Amino acid sequence: MYDFAAACTAGARTGEARAVVTGFPGRDELLHTAALGELPAGTPVRYEVRSDGATLRGEFTTAFPRGHRGPFRFIVYGDTRSYPDKHKSVVDGMTKEPDIRFVALSGDLVSNGDKWEQWPEQFFAPAKSFLETMAFWPVRGNHEGSAVLYRELFDLPGNEQ
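Request: output the structure for the sequence above.
Response:
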């Protein structure tokens, strides 16, 4: 039996999210997505994802309210392809920085975005610790290739290119 559930707490609100599981042709891996809906601005969100007996917990803070003019900290980095050990070293440093509101990766997440096996090794494994705790915004680089997998892996609103 396969089960998947996501729950989150944002301020005084707690709820379950509708889960969607997507398989990839010829692959054992599954992509789990859950839309959390409207969350209050500037609020810490704790989440829990349960799948087949395993539980993953994390926390992030939602974006500031529209019109916010105060200072905030974020990280932009890029070209993480080809060297997962160096990518992990950068991520380890990033996770030690206090009060980071979001991370943007300016492209070239993997060497060849059309090759499934590069995504876990070159991107997801090294980036795991910040993906659990920070809002993340990827930007497509030329190494994401046709972007078929990029669009499948990242549920971005609007123009995903």
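The helical segments are 84-95, 118-131, 148-153.
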